[in-house]
Amino acid sequence: MSPTKPCIPIPPPLMMSEEGSFAHQTLTQRWVTIIERAIASNNYPASITQNLENLRQELPYGIVRSLEDETQPDLEAWNTYMSPYQGKRWIDIPWYPAEVYLYRRILEATHYFQPGKWHRVDPFEPQKHSSLAKVMSAIETMSGKINTFVDAQGKWNRIDLIALFYFALWGNRIDLSLFPTDAGESQRMNIEAYREQANLLVDHTPQIADHIAHLKGVRIDLIVDNAGFELFCDLCVADFFVNSGIAQPVYLHLKPHPVLVSDAMIKDVDHTINVLCHHSHQDVQSLGKRLKNHIDNGNIICCEDSYWTAPLAFWDMPESWRSELNQSQLVMIKGDANYRRLLGDRQWDYTTPWEDIVCYFPAPFAALRTFKAEVAAGLKPAQIKRLNQDDPQWLTNGQWGVIQFFNPRQ
Ligand SMILES: O=P(O)(O)OC[C@H]1O[C@](O)(CO)[C@@H](O)[C@@H]1O
């Protein structure tokens, strides 16, 4: 029987109480800025602004309480998740559950689930839209290339497939929770650098390409991360899988409500495709229209589920999700936060063998992630030594990445 947990003892979670850690900095500085930006970029009435101010002031020594908004659909589930932490101070609870709980509290504060003017109004939408607008010239350049990756007969080559994986990885550098939209995306988007390997600390793309070479008309799943440029990259990957006949269909798993500032929801996919379809550049338009057709024809299926916003490690995946993903021939797991869930946001030694941790995953998968948190596995001691010397912020500055693969069926 296949394992449902890591195959080795699980270390403790990352804690926000550890001074000098990125988790501590996130609690004491980054979340404050995130709340302030949500206030500044929306035209909230005084009562909502006050709610958000109150939440900001709870950090870091206020007490964690249960959610109070009874109209929230998964209130009960959330109160169960948070029950081990109720009555504790924010600073004393593990980072990952605290992080997703914070975003849930932001939605409570902005009346996201309440009927009325602010119902389903994404507090981060202005930032998401402006981030997409700022990367349109990069999208123009990329669309021309992407449109040539699969020919009219569905033929493709391995080099383009691997380039697409690098492209999807480095697209994860752009993350509004870490780099606000006014910080200049273009600096981090040197298009030619998408083919670079220098900053890639683990590169399993050859194994992934070998795995994909045998696939035809199979189910592929993409656990999506950020809206904006990264979502554009991920849509290009989905487009490739459909055009080449490798996948039928591609499932895109999206967040059911706003979280981690830029995480993509179904409405963000719709917005992105709409922007592409109405863009003046021909290449962008044809890509947009093709994507729209793929969705209309059921070749790309967008879905959302509360599991993707729950404060649970991937090894705590409900049985229903394990059997769902078990039907997939490849699951692509995008981004840092999903990677943290894959590793349970635990204090693993960074040289821990990858397969000893992820042996529990129910399907072949590829994790594409730039480092924005102090969680890692499968690295070499010499690599770590060199990085600590050359770039002391390597674990969190989004400049380094991994593409890691595991196939539980081999
Ligand atoms: O969009 P991504 O890659 O999941 O990054 C979000 C992550 O980045 C951070 O903002 C930085 O740690 C985390 O809060 C979260 O893990």
TrEMBL record:
Give all residue intervals belonging to the Damage-control phosphatase ARMT1-like metal-binding domain: 26-383
Reaction equations catalysed:
beta-D-fructose 6-phosphate = dihydroxyacetone + D-glyceraldehyde 3-phosphate; beta-D-fructose 1-phosphate + H2O = D-fructose + phosphate
- Biological processes per GO annotation: DNA damage response
Put simply, this protein is called: Damage-control phosphatase ARMT1-like metal-binding domain-containing protein
What family does the entry list?
A: Belongs to the damage-control phosphatase family. Sugar phosphate phosphatase III subfamily.
Entries under InterPro entries matching the protein: ARMT-1-like_metal-bd_sf, ARMT1, ARMT1-like_metal-bd
Record keywords, A-Z: Hydrolase, Manganese, Metal-binding
The answer to keyword Transmembrane helix applying to this record is no
> GO MF terms on file?
metal ion binding; phosphatase activity
Source organism, top-level taxon:
Bacteria
Gene3D superfamilies linked to this entry: 1.20.930.60, Uncharacterised protein PF01937, DUF89, domain 3
Entry-linked Pfam families: ARMT1-like_dom
